[in-house]
Design brief:
With 351 residues, this protein is of the alpha/beta class. It has helices spanning 38-49, 63-78, 110-118, 136-150, 233-255, 272-284, 299-302, 309-318; strands at residues 2-11, 15-18, 53-56, 87-91, 126-130, 155-163, 180-190, 195-203, 212-215, 228-231, 262-267, 332-339, 343-350.
Amino acid sequence: MNIRIIGSGSFIPSNRIKNAYFKDHLFLDENGLPFNQPASVIEKFKAITGIEERRYANPNQVASDLAFKAGQLAIDDAGIDAETLDYIIVAHNYGDIPHGKIQSDTVPSLASRVKKKLGISNPKCVAYDLLFGCPGWNEGVLLANAFIKSGMAKRCMVIGAETLSRVVDPFDRDSMIYADGAGAVIIEATTTEQGLLSHESATYALEEANYLNFGSSYQQEQNPDIRYIKMKGRKIYEFALSKVPLAMQACLQKADIDIRAIKKILIHQANEKMDEAILMRFYALYDTVPPPDIMPMTIHTLGNSSVATIPTLYDLIARGQLDNQSLQEGDIILFASVGAGMNINAFTYRV
């Protein structure tokens, strides 16, 4: 028995925030000192990350609203009765944060809120949240795999949803990276050759736990009790390049897959240059170079929506909504992610 994805959905907010939005922002370094040339900060940012615009949720939306919308689309795509779901797993990091507020709301769980919004009455549909940094949706898929293979479930919905725009320090140039969105899949048991082939997960916390954390604003006159997402960019870059390619390689080895058999690599997108470097290092492990178009990118227009990035990317390709990208039955996909924890994971999947 294996698991396979039978439906997917994504919700991409309509509120487009182009880089020009930040042209009058006052960006400070971690010592509270302003950058001398704000325009060059934005130009350098685009050159490194590849981000030209990102999406923000509308003021009347919170993360569970985005999760519900993506979940409903996945249910419709799968053509199932929502009452048949055994688990709803919602991966996120910051809960529901209303527009203009600073306090995260996580009680009840976002998964319970999604279940309520979907109108599911079955009490044996268990709803819970997963906090695992940006790799949270990947890890949710692996949990669904464990539930189904253990006999605890037959059908699960896994959602990644985030509104990072609500936790950014406007004085931190890294705030331009973050975005909002949600992606979802329906997973069930299968006896076919399709589905999950192998997986790898790890947490590095001795030296790496605080590479991503909550910290005070770079504007030192701001209330120090108000916390924002902060990251040690260089540390994360070096960590990702050293660990993620090895996790990807471990997946291939576990499934005995030739690297030439991979049709697509869906990787978490926080920095285009970092992803390209990860890809090159991964293929260098096999003394070869990556083929063209193997790593679809959405970061240019959608930014980094954390746990929503990969399921949104998968859904866009599955629905034929990403230019020059498609999936065919039998194709092998390699999923990989890295994020707060520091956590990494990867899995191989046959369409």
